[in-house]
Design goal:
Chain lengths: ~250, ~250
């Protein structure tokens, strides 16, 4: 057998040390710039971190594709939802007139907004595609107010790093980083295709996020919380999706 | 550094160490991608063409299997358990492993001349007579042994080139074209394919071609001496050559 030469041994050592210190330095930088997703703990952490970090570094501000009116789906598909709770049914019976969305956490002016309050904010209308993790999709026109408008009106504190949002339905909550929370296409959506947002599509209020898969666009929104850490929310994985086995970041 | 020396020198391994390592990382990643890809496909075994597609639009074709979602009309009276969570996590992690390994392999292959000397058909084989001779040999189930000077024949080279430079890049592209954040950043990557449902359908068809390659690849390894070929790809030195080398030393 051939002996490993001294030169080869030294070179391998230098390369290995440089590689290891490079990884440590990269991990430190990734933490500082918020490139590590909250569900990065398990065996799939490396893949999730690579995807999330790569997209935040290379395409933080890109806009989702918007389509011409002619491409709006004739028959959009409302996905199945869990049986509606009493909380929702009571609002539905009252025609959603008392539906409010509260804003709390790290904001200067915590409070709440009615649906008509939301309609007094700047309006954005966009024709975007809903993309389900299962593979199907449809295009619709979504009308609402950008989340950033509501956050600014509430006095977002500078240390905020994530926005958590809740459905009125139990155990249905998600969170997004500031790249998505402040993104102009992230809408508190109250109308769809020239009408009120139908219940089956998340009405009266849905947070629509066209740069991520459909499951991040939570239906029946009643609460928004601004925070600097996701550790104290649920199991600390960022949202109910990773608690059910699905990735927190769904921009893939 | 040139890889050509390793072929002509009978003491050196049949496959370079870099080829062996990247081969097995790719093999494991591909297997993970294949299994998880099938799991994900089961949640919606319908395929469409164009930008959009769902259970309310007409599919291009449908795989006649049960689904893991109740809303998909499959004709079966039952629904399979949902495996998409871990399947998606593993699919993307394995995709990263495959892409990074592929990039390293491509750089190494260009740097060492591996593609030029071992994969592009040898000058003597660039004619139909040579190609036909190899096909005829295969038809008679006669496969090259270790004494042959060149490591890969012209059919192998063509198959490997198609897999490495056509199927893998295209399957990665169509996969990325399904990512909502990626196609926000690079809309042309999905638009030129005709839309995201076209990208999904192409992704599925390309995986089917890669699976076909895998079947033929394993069949050829089995027919031409399974353990000999496996040892060559794991340790670099097949038993046949080990035996000959031992005899030469005596």
């Amino acid at each position: 057998m051939s002996k490993i030469s001294r030169r080869k041994f030294v070179t391998t050592g230098i390369v290995a040390t440089a590689g290891a210190s490079g990884l440590v330095a990269a991990a430190g930088l990734a933490h500082r710039y918020g490139l590590i997703p909250p569900d990065s703990g398990g065996i799939f952490g490396p893949g999730e971190t690579l995807t999330y970090a790569a997209q935040r570094l290379l395409a933080r501000n890109s806009l989702a594709r918007e389509f011409p009116r002619s491409m709006i789906s004739k028959a959009p598909f409302a996905n199945e939802i869990a049986p509606l709770g009493d909380g929702f049914k009571n609002h539905q019976a009252a025609g959603f007139k008392d539906w409010r969305i509260s804003v709390d956490g790290m904001v200067a002016r915590p409070g709440s907004f009615s649906l008509s309050d939301l309609r007094s904010f700047p309006v954005r209308s966009q024709i975007t595609e809903v993309v389900c993790e299962e593979g199907w999709s449809y295009i619709a026109e979504w009308v609402g107010t950008p989340l950033v408008e509501v956050l600014n009106a509430s006095g977002l504190l500078p240390q905020v790093r994530y926005i958590v949002y809740y459905s009125i339905q139990p155990n249905w909550w998600e969170s997004i980083d500031m790249a998505d929370a402040l993104h102009p296409q992230t809408l508190l959506t109250y109308a769809m295709n020239d009408g009120d947002l139908p219940m089956s599509f998340g009405g009266p209020l849905r947070l629509r996020l066209p740069r991520q898969l459909g499951y991040k666009s939570v239906k029946f929104i009643t609460r928004i919380t601004a925070t600097d850490s996701l550790k104290r929310f649920g199991k600390g994985l960022g949202s109910s999706s990773p608690e059910g086995g699905y990735a927190w970041y769904a921009g893939i | 550094m040139s890889d050509t020396t390793s072929i002509e020198n009978s003491d050196s391994p049949r496959h370079a160490p870099f080829v062996r390592v990247t081969h097995w990382i790719t093999a494991i990643s591909f297997l993970a991608l294949l299994i998880t890809g099938i799991e994900i496909m089961i949640s919606h075994p319908r395929f469409y063409w164009g930008e959009i597609g769902n259970v309310q639009t007409t599919p291009l074709f449908q795989i006649p299997i049960p689904s893991s979602r109740a809303m998909v009309p499959t004709g079966y009276g039952y629904v399979l358990p949902d495996q998409n969570g871990w399947s998606r996590y593993l699919h993307f992690q394995a995709a990263w492993a495959l892409v990074l390994t592929g990039l390293a392999y491509a750089i190494w292959g260009l740097w060492t001349g591996h593609f030029r000397s071992n994969l592009f058909p040898a000058p003597a084989d660039r004619n139909w007579t040579a190609v036909w001779q190899i096909i005829a040999k295969h038809m008679r189930f006669k496969f090259s042994d270790e004494s042959e000077a060149r490591p890969y024949n012209v059919l192998q080279r063509t198959a490997y080139l198609v897999v490495i430079f056509l199927l893998f890049p295209f399957v990665i592209w169509t996969g990325l074209a399904m990512s909502p954040a990626f196609n926000a950043a690079f809309p042309a990557t999905v638009n030129v394919l005709g839309g995201r449902q076209s990208a999904r359908t192409l992704h599925f068809l390309l995986s089917a071609f890669l699976l076909l390659f895998l079947f033929i690849h394993i069949a050829m390894v089995a027919l031409s001496g399974f353990w000999n070929r496996m040892r060559a790809m794991i340790t670099g030195t097949p038993p046949v050559r080990q035996k000959r080398l031992a005899e030469e030393r005596r």
